Amino acid sequence: MDYEKLKLRLLGSEDISMWEDAFALMVSSEDHIRNKELRKKVLASVKTNGGSRALDLYWKTLLFDAKDDFDCFMRYNEKNRPLNEQFWVPRRKKLMPVCKALQEMEDGELDELFLSCPPRIGKTTIMLFFLAWVMGRNSERSNLYCSYTDSVVQVLYNGILETLSDPVTYSYFDIFPTAKVVSTNAQDKLINLDRKKRYASFTGRSLYGTLNGACDCNGYLIADDLISGIEEAMNKDRLNNAWAKVDNNMLPRAKESAKVLWIGTRWSLVDPQGVRIDLLENDPKYKDRRWRVLNTPALDENDESNFDYDYGVGFSTNYYQMRRASFERNSDMASWLAQYQGEPIERDGSIFEPSGMKYYNGELPEGDPDRIFMAVDPAWGGGDYVAAPLCYQFGDDIYVADVVYTNEEKTISQPAIVNAVKKHGVQAIKVEGTKMTASYGEDIDKALRKQDIRVNMRINTSHFTGNGKRQRIFDKAPDIREHMIFLAEGHRTKEYTQFMQSVFSFTVTGKQAKHDDAADSLAMAIDFAMFSHNKVEIMKRII
After folding, report:
1. Distance (Å, rounded) from C-alpha 414 to C-alpha 409?
2. Which of 66, 82, 111 is the last residue in one of the domains?
3. What is the per-residue pLDDT for 539?
4. I need a surface site. Which of 195, 198, 402, 463 has the fewest CB within 10 A?
5. Cα 256 to Cα 79: distance, rounded to the nearest angstrom
6. Could you tell me which of 445, 452, 440, 414 has the C-alpha nearest to residue 428?
């Protein structure tokens, strides 16, 4: 009999009896792919028609996959809890990228993973579920969890024990029926499954505790929040000390086969995660290391929350925008960017602070401006940003009334600039780039001419790069702060807000955590305004 054809025929039916037969075939043939297809059909039926029989089959399909699929494990593990009290299902849509990345590690596709998320979004809970899952899959592996303080380790240790010891709340032993907790040690944070081993299934330690001899890790080495906070992040000696602990005490605990998982707030470019990423990126000895960085910021590219979970257990867009406003008022955008956006910057090189800039409420001065112009820092997309402030000049005052700021392809960014020119009646445009981007300005000029719009277009291909760009921004910073006037909060578009956040995050020391295009476009604009504009006035002849 062709069982594959039989499975397809049974799956194509709308009869619950045939679905049950299909499931039996999938279990006997270990067919997890078809089981996933069946689960989708059954779940749709449960949502539409209800029925205890279909619901029972849905749970069976989850249980069948739960040993091998982390998402299924978390869904089944909390099956007995009310939905609004569950951890995973309310957060599932938002945290699936994290779940998939962890699945890739367990499937052998990654050697190292960096996870960056804002505080209190559930990263510690997903870690404890992940450790419980991998311990059930292979209790012989030794896993080591490390954080900056013993209190954080204690919380995770308690969470794992709760999952393993509360059969009313959790269904862990339905998934791993032969698993047994044979020993625990609250003082040393040890958990052994199935048998007592020299190196436990789980060991928890603080970075500054006793790591030597604690665990010969051949499973997962998890580093969670190795920096305590802003005080440590601003102290280079303490950062260097933290890395020394990581390099000399923590990383040597991992065998070559172990996988390394880094989690936490990216406070500084030279925190342990930053140093490790730099090593992976630039040292040729690590060229075969399979690794990735997954940063999920509080607010996405549309300035909306990434963590607005179901059942009101997350954080709304308004909540994060209020938090950002508080940091901005205190002139501490570096902390906002690090804690909530996953974008560490070096504070000692920051030259634009919110409190040091000038603002207006959207109402321009009376009378005609001396000139309306744009400065365009072009890009082709793919991560690089087009940055183009639109300026109204009144004497020495330059009002930045609008911006184009996008990392979309030129088919999006060029029409946006053309529309801004039409909307504001721009008279002059300066496009500055490299020979590679010279055609960017030419395309804009052609598009304007097709609509019978004439502007004074200047295209400069001797664009500053690297240190030259930073130096120019540094040199022009005093003029930007003195002469440029920006829209106040509450009067900005999302695009304008993102532009300003990029300006505030710019530093002239260390590596750039995000693009410097916004700050550079302001340097271009101030240069264009102060050194290329001659005002013409009509006056009486003297003779």
Report:
1. 9
2. 66
3. 44
4. 198
5. 37
6. 445
- Please, what is the angle between helix 32-49 and helix 52-66, to 10°? 150
Asked if residue 406 and residue 354 are part of one domain, the reply reads yes
85, 72 in Cβ contact below 8 A?
Answer: no
Are 101 and 262 contacting, i.e. CB atoms less than 8 angstroms apart?
A: no
d(C-alpha 455, C-alpha 445), whole Å = 8
- Give domain status of residue 218, yes or no: yes
264, 207 contact by CB (below 8 A): no
Q: What per-residue confidence (pLDDT) applies to 3?
A: 62
Same domain, yes or no: 352 and 305: no
Structure tokens at 541: 């002849």
Residues 376, 429 contacting (CB under 8 angstroms):
yes
C-beta separation of 448 from 455 below 8 A: yes
Which tokens go with 42?
């059954």
Whether 524 is in a domain gets the answer yes
Task: Return the structure tokens found at 406.
Answer: 């996008």
198 is written with which tokens? 């020299």
Q: Domain containing 475 — which CATH number?
A: 3.30.420.240
Do 110 and 58 belong to one domain? no
Residues 256 and 191 in one domain: yes
**Three-class SS of residue 144?**
strand
Q: Are residues 224 and 360 in the same domain?
A: no
* Strands 181-185 vs 143-147: parallel, antiparallel or unpaired: unpaired
Q: Which helix (H) or strand (E) holds 203?
A: strand 202-206
> 360 with 307, same domain?
no
Alpha carbon distance, N-terminus to C-terminus of the chain: 111
pLDDT at 411: 92
One domain for residues 358 and 304: no
Structurally, the chain folds into a number of domains equal to 3
Provide the H-helix boundaries in 107-147: 123-137
| pTM of the predicted model as reported, rounded to 2 decimal places | 0.74
Please report the pLDDT score of residue 205 as a whole number. Answer: 93
Q: Running along the chain, 543 residues long, what does each successive block of 10 average in pLDDT? A: 70 86 90 92 89 93 98 97 95 96 97 94 94 97 94 94 95 97 94 94 91 83 89 80 94 95 87 93 94 95 93 94 87 83 75 87 95 92 85 96 93 95 95 78 93 91 67 89 93 90 77 70 91 47 46
CATH number at residue 287: 3.40.50
CA pair distance 507, 268, nearest whole angstrom: 12
pLDDT for the residue 401: 97
CA of 239: how far to CAs of 5, 24, 229, 247, 270, in Å?
61, 56, 11, 12, 7
**Shared domain check, 282 and 381:** no
Whole-angstrom distance, CA of residue 162 vs CA of residue 524: 59
User: Which residue among 66, 86, 106 closes a domain?
Assistant: 66
Domain-located, residue 182: yes
Using an 8 Å Cβ cutoff, are 101 and 110 in contact? yes
User: What does the pLDDT read at residue 355?
Assistant: 80
Domain that holds residue 425: 348-531
Residue 341 belongs to a domain: no
Maximum distance among all Cα pairs of the chain, rounded to whole angstroms: 111
* One-letter amino acid for residue 417 of the chain: I
